[in-house]
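Progress report, Aim 2. The chain analyzed during this reporting quarter is listed below.
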Amino acid sequence: MRIAARKGGFAFREMDNFVYICGKIEAMKQRVYIDTSVMGGYFDTEFAKDTVPFFESLYTGEWTVLLSDQLNKELENAPERVRELLKTFSPVYTEYVKMTSEAEHLANKYIEARVVGKTSLTDCQHIAIATLYRADILVSWNFKHIVNLGRIRGYNGINLQQGYNTIEIRTPKEVMHYETK
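Predicted structure tokens for the chain:
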């Protein structure tokens, strides 16, 4: 726990994803990094059922969405409607993050540890960027290389070895708060 800031003469303390303000604990908005598969999932018949409501929660500010230059690069050859989807995010709820040499180094550590093979470097770059920019959750539909329990353990093991935090990796379906009637 650390003192995060002072507002109006009152200190508040940050505790993971909660803030303690004047005797009350309040949830902080979580920061979610999305990869390319989530963008494509918006238009995919199999994944749209869970991806569209997830995007609606992004549009309403339930989350702060992290969009990377790596995502932009991958979408250059995507269908136009997928590329246009990037323009629908409000700058108010969006943080733009970049690939850095530190992220490249961490991504290569995942490869060196054989969490995934060399052909999955781009996936590793997404995870490294999300880790370094302290995303609370990386959201993906990539079950083979990202949303996979063995691989998640591998990525997080390397993160800890390198002195970084672990990262939650989930699908849009897993992070949604569906109302039951």
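The first strand starts at residue 2 and ends at 7. The chain has one domain: 29-175. These observations will guide the mutagenesis work planned for the next reporting period.
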